[in-house]
Amino acid sequence: MSQTNESLMQRRVAAVPRGVGQIHPIFADHASNSRVVDVEGREFIDFAGGIAVLNTGHLHPKIVKAVEAQLHKLTHTCFQVLAYEPYVELCEKINARVPGDFAKKTLLVTTGSEAVENAVKIARAATGRAGVIAFTGAYHGRTMMTLGLTGKVAPYSAGMGLMPGGIFRALYPCALHGISVDESTASIERIFKNDAEPRDIAAIIIEPVQGEGGFNVAPKEFMVRLRALCDQHGIVLIADEVQTGAGRTGTFFAMEQMGVVADLTTFAKSVGGGFPIAGVCGRAELMDAIAPGGLGGTYAGNPLSCAAALAVLEIFEEERLLERCRHVAAKLTAGLEAIQARHPRIAEVRGLGAMVAIELFEDAEHTRPAAELTAQVVARARDKGLILLSCGTYYNVLRVLVPLTVEDEVLERGLAIIEACFDELS
């Protein structure tokens, strides 16, 4: 007897803890590029991309071929026991890709949370300090340290008690929510006055474009100020590019558009093209601050994932995916702005490159976030064959993370579904 989504959901509820959320009550069976087919044979357009993991699409043939070839060589030795060339080659290529005209080194791990944890470890070891400044609306992971850095309690750390100390929260600039660059800068200065001296702060960590926070783009002016502040006080600037990395914003890393460079950069998600890999790249002298044995992990930089990531880098060059990203971004933005023009509850269309979102409110003054409408659009879109994600501090943002390899016709069908949902619900 073939499985159904409902029968599998019943098994899931019995076997999997409720803390593992699931946005859509669907079980995927197979996928190709920007389309997913569930266990009942229904096809969906994928505007979620595994939460920004599939910029190169589902099962890109070049990635499949690279992983298959590696599979016949070796799958695991633990790099710290017996090394292998794909790890080193990937580090070399990431060093060349990450912005910054200085010597760099790269550490490979498995998840974005691991990458952020290790970036903080490196900053603390390099500076001899312990404090970290993060921002409102930030999302950096689900491990204990990264939960402390993440600026959203529910659902991520609700009921778990206080997170690790030594973390301080500054305001992320967002014009729509009334937080100017001046106010954001002043909030950091308030930390220095009220909470911790600059000499106690090891790092400031920031997403150039916030992911879970709602696709808020850091103004270039603010990033310039942040860089100057870090230089003034000897603080390590960490750019969390886990979601923005691998070409989502129109450059391989979003910091290429920010006018300044970070000291450490974290990456994950689409770098692996669907395989679990992450890492930290940064100034060589900072990366070398920790003695042998202080960095690594049993599965860190797995050979199959390294092979996939190397294929991703080749795909970006061969298929000119950064140029394709700009094309997708233009179509997405124009399509969503056309919907906004007819539906005033859409307060803003924003983002960088093809990392695009819309924020919904109940009122013209933008004082009442439309969380219920947002959830309704996600559900209605699913009924029509489109997978969407919501996000934002108030659960009122719809974000689009469609593969950059999406065909124009599929992209247009997805936008038409979004439009139909607003026509029916607004």
UniProtKB/TrEMBL annotation:
The keyword Transferase applies. Pfam families: Aminotran_3 (PF00202). It is an enzyme of class 2 (transferase). PROSITE patterns: AA_TRANSFER_CLASS_3 (PS00600). Its EC number is 2.6.1.19. Its cofactor is pyridoxal 5'-phosphate. One of its GO terms (molecular function) is 4-aminobutyrate:2-oxoglutarate transaminase activity. Keywords: Aminotransferase, Pyridoxal phosphate, Transferase. CDD domains: OAT_like. It comes from the Bacteria. Belongs to the class-III pyridoxal-phosphate-dependent aminotransferase family. PANTHER family: AMINOTRANSFERASE CLASS III, LEUCINE_METHIONINE RACEMASE. This is 4-aminobutyrate--2-oxoglutarate transaminase. It comes from Stutzerimonas nitrititolerans. The lineage of its organism: Bacteria, Pseudomonadati, Pseudomonadota, Gammaproteobacteria, Pseudomonadales.
